[in-house]
Every structure is written in C-alpha cells, then in structure tokens.
Design a protein that fits this description.
alpha+beta, Uridine Diphospho-n-acetylenolpyruvylglucosamine Reductase, domain 2, Uridine Diphospho-n-acetylenolpyruvylglucosamine Reductase, domain 3, Alpha-Beta Plaits, five-stranded antiparallel beta sheet, globular, binds flavin-adenine dinucleotide, FAD-binding oxidoreductase, Oxid_FAD_bind_N
Length: 467
Amino acid sequence: MRYEPITPEILKKLQAAVGPKNVTTDPDKMQPYSHDEVTDPAYHHMPEAVVFAETAEQVAAVVQLANDYHFPVVPRGAGTGLACGAVPIYGGIVLSLEKMNRILEINEDALYAVVEPGVRTSDLQDAAEAKGLFYAGDPCSGDSCFIGGNIATNAGGNRAVKYGTTRHQVYDVEIVNPTGRIVQLGARLQKQSTGYCLEQLVIGSEGTLGIITKATVKLLPKPKYALDLLAVFDSPEQAIGAVGAILKQGIVPTCVEYMDNITIRSVEKYLHEKLQGSDSGNYLIVEVEGIHDDDLDDKAVALDELCTQHGASSVLVADHNKIWQARKAFAEAVRAESLIVSKEDVVVPVDQEPLLLAEILRLAGKYGLITRIASHAGDGNIHLNILKPDDTPYEDWARRVEQNQQELYAFIYAHGGRLSGEHGIGFKRKHLMEEFTNPDELAMMKAIKKALDPNNILNPGKIFDIE
Ligand SMILES: Cc1cc2nc3c(=O)[nH]c(=O)nc-3n(C[C@H](O)[C@H](O)[C@H](O)COP(=O)(O)OP(=O)(O)OC[C@H]3O[C@@H](n4cnc5c(N)ncnc54)[C@H](O)[C@@H]3O)c2cc1C
C-alpha cells in the first residue's frame, strides 16, 4: 500500500484538530507506540506522528484529514495486544485513546455503565464492585488494557465459560467510522431484530472498521459466593481430559483454566513463590459461583469427585488471590525466560481440545521446540508459547516455528478450529489468515472493509491486505 507522508502541513492540521500538546513527532516519545506486547523487534514500526484524542469530535476530525491527505490511522488503546494490531506498519499516525478515560455513568438500577475507550478494564471492574456490581469481562491483562482495546479485539479471558467474551458484555458502541463520521451502533436492549448487527461487526474488527469512542457495557449484581478449586493432575492429558466432563456436569463454572507443569514452574520461579504440586503436577483451576454457602459446597464436592475420577492426585480449595496471581503471571514469567517468543492463541471446539493438546506436544517433540502452555481450557483456547533459546540462531528457530505452525493450523482447521481465540490476527497472523480462511469467507470480509473504508485509512495491513 502507498500512502502520503505526514508533511509539516498535515502536522499543522493535526495540531489544529486536537491541540498542539496532543501531537508529537519526538522519537523518544513515539518509541513506546512503535510496538505492542510482542517483544520481537522484527514486528516493531515507528509511527510518523502520535496523536492523542480527547473527544469523539477530535477523532472524527483526524480521520477526515486522513481521508483528505491519504495517510494511515492506527487506533491504539493500552498497547497490550499480542498480534501487532496497534503497530503502524505502513507509517502514518498512531491515534492514542488513552486520554479518553472517563467512566461517564454507572447505572445501578438498570445495570449498565457508559465508558470512554481509554478506561482501564480493572478500573471499570473496581468502579462496578464499589457499587456492589460486577463487570464480567476479565482478560489476564485487565490491570493495564483498556475497554476500547478489549472491544476492538473481542478480548476473552477468564470468565468466558460462564459470561462470554467482551462482545457479550456490550450493548452499544459509538464509533468514528473510516470516513470520519460519528455513528451510534447497537442499543441498550436485551433483544432486537432490526437490520444488520453492526455493533457486533465492529467488535473484534481490530480497529479496521471503526474507532470506538464510547460504549455502553452490561453490569451484573456481584456474585456473593464463589470459590476456586485447584485440581492437580500427574499428566497434561488427564487434566485436559477432565474439562469436557466438568462442563457436561450441569454446573456452569465461571472458568476452567489449565497450566502445564513446566509453565507452573516457570511462574513459580518468576514469582519466587512455592506453588502447590509444582514438582510434577498440571493444573486445572475451576472457579464456581453459588447462591449460598451450601450451594457452593455441593458444587465443590461434585467437582472434587469428578476431578478425582478423572485422575486428579489432589483437589483443594485454592487461595483466590494466590492462584490467580499465578495464572495471570503466565505471560510475564515466559517473557522473563525469553524476549523472543512465538505466541499461539489457537482455539478448537472444547471436545477437540484433548486431541489438540496431544498434537501440540507431538509437534513440539518433532521440531525440538521449548514450550510453555496455559489455556482457557473451558473455551478450547490454548496459549502455546514457543521460546527461542539464547544459543539458537534466530533463522533456525523461526524456520522450525513456521513448520510447526503449518502443521498445527492444518490440524486445527481440520478439527473445526481457528487461528485465534482472543488475541486477534493483527499484523502478526495475517499471512496465516489468508492461507487458512475459506476464500469465500475472506472475500466477504474484504468486501466489507472496502465498502466501509474506501481509502483504506483505518489500520491498514491488519487482519488481511486489501488488493
Ligand atoms: C500479560 C497479558 C495478558 C493478556 N491476557 C489476555 C486475555 O486473558 N484475554 C485476551 O483476550 N487478551 C489478553 N491479552 C491481550 C491484550 O491485552 C488484549 O488483546 C486487549 O484487549 C488489548 O487491549 P489494549 O487496550 O491494550 O489494545 P491495543 O493493544 O492498544 O490494541 C489492540 C487492537 O485494538 C485496536 N484498538 C485499540 N483501541 C481501539 C479503539 N478505541 N477503537 C478501535 N480500535 C482500537 C488496535 O488498533 C489494535 O488492533 C493479554 C496481553 C498481555 C500482555
């Protein structure tokens, strides 16, 4: 794709649109905006300018300018993405939403919140909790990522088994569309059959179809009774094998998370804390909610019996903070081991997950890969991290990672799966998206992008390329 460079004339117009303090071309200040959480420098790209918007009107003015002068606009939340979605691969500007960070309303009677896109996910969770309410979205990066980024990527996380992913938490969004108009999509309704569901089209579109400038999200009464069970299994197969049985039992867990033994030991080292069963155990963490203590006890007993039947060597009630600190430290622990990591986010139907795990382990052996595995097991979503050892040349490692990917994705698509369960395609996986997606489905996606963004201004080169 060819775009016009950001000239002094364009910079002046950008400054007029958002105010001089909200535009920078200082390389030191722009550097953090050249990457997301993908640490491999091969994926980093400097923007020509970083622009901070404070209102939807400013976002609209910037996008109109981009159409007039033909430069790319890359929307950015907190930059915690793992697919290089917020990286300006064709230059142009990064448009940061970090200053639009107000919770505009929390309605305790009608159970909703109205938020700007730069609200930190944990701030919304805390604000809801302070009123005895609950926001169900819970990506592991919740302490740093933004609601706008969560909506743009349809973030999943830890409670999707019971509450669904971010798209299930959203009533409506206000967006700036790719031609620079402010549009309201969706409504605060439990149901509607009123034309195309455009808010859901924008959710998960990774900043390619609209810039989210406001959203109304669902809140729930805070569950009063909850507990976390930690089931420790001697083998990965036993642990993943128990997931289907747990889901079929009729108890709807909030989450079912898996960590393999080497990952548990990696986290243990990172946190400097002894973790239960870390010598040889593989974890299932199962969180359940109840309507009162007895209800919770009954569920815990039933889950204990079921996990034991499936080979758990121990099942115990876990310390909530400790076990979730361990689960959420997965990405940082891996990063402490190696800065160059290939992160897969594959997803299959839950009943196919034992087969997928076996295939992952087989391929890792075949290609001599060092892996760390954690998964949102109740969603069929496995995070496979492949570490580059210091003493292995990059090219050699990258070649084996690619061979592994080819076999892995062929397997996944043959078993009804997809490339990404929650991190998205971004720039990082777009070649695989082209290769593995049904051509007719891909053609429909591209037709939508071309129709809504005729100048290919919004986040170009993400998900797929437009010819
Ligand atoms: C330690 C760690 C743990 C993680 N755990 C999870 C997890 O459990 N579940 C999960 O799903 N993800 C997880 N992630 C990935 C990441 O946090 C999510 O994808 C998150 O939703 C990204 O939000 P962000 O604000 O950082 O967005 P960014 O990284 O800034 O952007 C992500 C994408 O969204 C677009 N975008 C951002 N804001 C907007 C906007 N307002 N309008 C339009 N487009 C926008 C960007 O262009 C980009 O394509 C994790 C990441 C890390 C580092």
